[in-house]
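Full entry
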Amino acid sequence: MVNPGAGVRTGLDGAIQRITVNGDIWDRLMARAIWSHGVRRYRGPPCDEMSQCLNDGVCIPQLNVPLCRCPLYFWGSKCEKRIAKEDLERPVQFGGNDFLSFSNKVITKVEGQRETNIEVTFRTSQNKGLILWTNKGATIRGDYLALAISKGYAQLSFNLGKQKEPLLITSLHRVDDSRWHTALIERNMRFGTLTMDDNPPISNTSEPGATELNTDGVYWIGGCPSLPTGLPEDYYFGFRGCIESVVLDGDPLHLVMHGTGDVKFCDDS
């Protein structure tokens, strides 16, 4: 029962889209609840008839912005485009404000991930921009992992939630030369390694603390619309360039099929 001194006499007449407790995002509220009464799934803005997704796409609300998660072989902001076979391997173009989010059978919510293995092939002429991001929490003190371009160099950054300062690993060679580069990220508990192309790997170990990466199960490619404060300045710019492939823990991610958001292609020359 609610304490009478609180002055609260009635429950909420409205909708709740997301609850975050101590930086932990509570997903699937109705399934998580230990008891409920009179609660039903919300139907309305931003996922209403005006933002209806086509071809059995599912609308995912992000505050007041509706995003369509498309079924296999469809893409586009409304899932209105059918994927051609040749599109599956084409490089995807990012213009600094084009973000894709992923949460599906390839990337599921992982609690206590002790190891991470990510490979990204990209090219850019810009000296800054966020390529890949995943996190859990609203601050950089919470768990996160990022790959970004900072001052023209590739940079791996992560925090496992108990460290005072994030770990930063920066490549030795610039990558803003409009040529294709492959970044290989390997993390084994607190030990992180960044390997660029055929260059020797660069490794470092984060300060003592947690050893597992906890995320909300969502990876952002090309940038993220909501980042915590305290990251390097260059992370707050979206990636501008082309991404040819992303491989997450051995599973290739088809950017056209698995993402939420519209897709533009660039030539593979």
Observations:
- The CA atoms of residues 163 and 171 lie 22 Å apart.
- The first helix runs from residue 29 to 32.
